[in-house]
Every structure is written in C-alpha cells, then in structure tokens.
Amino acid sequence: GHPELATLEQMACDLAMSAGRLIVDERPRGLGVAATKSSDTDVVTVMDQRSEAFLRERLDQLRPDDGLLGEEGAQHEGSSGITWVVDPIDGTVNYLYEIPAYAVSVAACVGDVRQGGEWSTVAGAVYNPVTDELFHAHAGGGAFLRRRGDVQSLSVSGEKHLAKSLVGTGFGYEIAKRERQGAVVASLIGQVRDIRRIGSAALDLCSVGAGRLDVYYESGLNPWDQAAGQLVVTEAGGVVVGRGDGPPDKDLVVAGPAPLVAALKSVLKV
Ligand code: IPD
C-alpha cells in the first residue's frame, strides 16, 4: 500500500474510535430523538448530530483542505481531491434500543461522491464501540480487524453455494420500498442457509469482509452507509457491485466472494 493512504487509514481509525467512544459513553444523554426523517422508522438521535459535529470539527482541524459528506447534512467541497464520507452512527435504531450492532463509519474517498457521480474509497474504518471491534483498510493494503489489542487480517468466505450461504440484507426507510424488499426476502429465504438483518450496513459489509456473512445485498444505501465497508470487502478479496456490470450505487449493492455475488444476482434477477 501507499504510505499516504496508510496515514489516511490511521486517521480514519482514530476518528472512528474517538466518535465511537463518545456515542457509547454518552449514550444515556444521546438518546433523544431529534427528528424523524422520511418515515417513523427513520430516526435521528441527538447523538447522531453530536457525533457528526465532533467528526466535522476534528476533520476541519486535521485536514482543512479535504471535502466532507456526512449523513446528518455536514458537507463542503475541498480542494485536495479527498472527501471524507462519515456516518456518525450507522445502525441508529440498534443504538436507540441498545442492541450492540452499531458503528461509526469514516472513509476517505476520491471522485464525485457529494454530487452523486463516480467515486471510490481509498481508506476507511468502521468501529463498533460495544464489541470494541475496529475494521480498517486502505487501497492495496489488505483489510484488518483489531479487537482487544489483537490484529487479524481478513478474507471473505470461501463458500461457493448459495444454498449453504448466510445472506445479509437490510431495508430502507420508505414504506413502499420496504414492502418490495420484504417480497424479495420471502422469495430468497427458501434458497439460502439463512438471512440476517443486522441493522447496520457498515457492519454488514465488514461482516462479509470477515467471513461472518457469506454475501450481502441491499438497495437504497447512501455513500456514508457503505463507503468504508466497501473497501473492507474488496481488500478482503471480495467484490462489491451494483446492477448489471455497474458499480454499486443507490439502487443496489451486492458484496461477497465473486461466485456468490454472481449466484445471488441471478436469483435476485438483477
Ligand atoms: C441504516 C442502516 C441499516 C440499513 C439502512 C441504513 P442508519 O443506516 O445501515 O442497516 O438497512 O438502509 O439507512 O440510518 O442507521 O445510519
């Protein structure tokens, strides 16, 4: 890997861990629901906003020339070519209910991520502050999991058969879309080992990187949900694709070992 990318990766790790400690230490004071966005299922806690403000201030100090895109609305254009894409709490509903599957996702990206053009992640980290698991990667450097002082290198599952696969997915917040996604799950459940809805797309992708899920798909994800996790999957030897031969986008993300991604896409007919 490139030395500058290793520096960005270290920065992503530090930021994700600091924000992760903030959201878990201050959780009792952070639970107020600040707003519901597209529907009652789409909540924003006070802590989503505090964690994003923390990340924005730190990045302003550390990397004043870089751009920013955050889930809760923080964004500005930079001049360096790097844009930080942050999800201050991915898995907000788990956070609200104290289900230990939420994370802070921090990614350094290149390309047109703020305007919906083509982009890719060059370094990133996803930190689950409850399990103290830090997933991180930079382009060309491999993917790693650091847990209780121990670092292990990650690789995707070696499973080849969809029928023996544990499949992750998630649901968007728009009601009509959720109903369509439920119908897809109904048709898939008889064809796979089982299905998990972990509740954090960032952790879903990192789970694929770690081989804890064989394959994962979701439609309707935003860049902040997937930016860091995508790189963890590809650096762990997997692929992340969208519809047809296209790159992953808002429409569809399928991630896993290449043969399983192909098999899942043919079953999903995308
Ligand atoms: C959500 C989670 C969830 C996924 C949704 C995302 P948030 O992010 O990643 O697993 O199914 O599509 O919006 O709102 O908790 O940051």
UniProtKB/TrEMBL annotation:
<keyword id="KW-0479">Metal-binding</keyword>
<keyword id="KW-0378">Hydrolase</keyword>
<feature type="binding site">
    <location>
        <position position="71"/>
    </location>
    <ligand>
        <name>Mg(2+)</name>
    </ligand>
</feature>
<comment type="similarity">
    <text>Belongs to the inositol monophosphatase superfamily.</text>
</comment>
<dbReference type="GO" id="GO:0046854">
    <property type="term" value="P:phosphatidylinositol phosphate biosynthetic process"/>
</dbReference>
<keyword id="KW-0460">Magnesium</keyword>
<dbReference type="InterPro" id="IPR020550">
    <property type="entry name" value="Inositol_monophosphatase_CS"/>
</dbReference>
<feature type="binding site">
    <location>
        <position position="89"/>
    </location>
    <ligand>
        <name>Mg(2+)</name>
    </ligand>
</feature>
<feature type="binding site">
    <location>
        <position position="90"/>
    </location>
    <ligand>
        <name>Mg(2+)</name>
    </ligand>
</feature>
<dbReference type="GO" id="GO:0006020">
    <property type="term" value="P:inositol metabolic process"/>
</dbReference>
<feature type="binding site">
    <location>
        <position position="87"/>
    </location>
    <ligand>
        <name>Mg(2+)</name>
    </ligand>
</feature>
<dbReference type="InterPro" id="IPR000760">
    <property type="entry name" value="Inositol_monophosphatase-like"/>
</dbReference>
<feature type="binding site">
    <location>
        <position position="225"/>
    </location>
    <ligand>
        <name>Mg(2+)</name>
    </ligand>
</feature>
<protein>
    <recommendedName>
        <fullName>Inositol-1-monophosphatase</fullName>
        <ecNumber>3.1.3.25</ecNumber>
    </recommendedName>
</protein>
<dbReference type="GO" id="GO:0007165">
    <property type="term" value="P:signal transduction"/>
</dbReference>
<dbReference type="GO" id="GO:0046872">
    <property type="term" value="F:metal ion binding"/>
</dbReference>
<dbReference type="InterPro" id="IPR020583">
    <property type="entry name" value="Inositol_monoP_metal-BS"/>
</dbReference>
<dbReference type="GO" id="GO:0008934">
    <property type="term" value="F:inositol monophosphate 1-phosphatase activity"/>
</dbReference>
<dbReference type="Pfam" id="PF00459">
    <property type="entry name" value="Inositol_P"/>
</dbReference>
<dbReference type="InterPro" id="IPR033942">
    <property type="entry name" value="IMPase"/>
</dbReference>
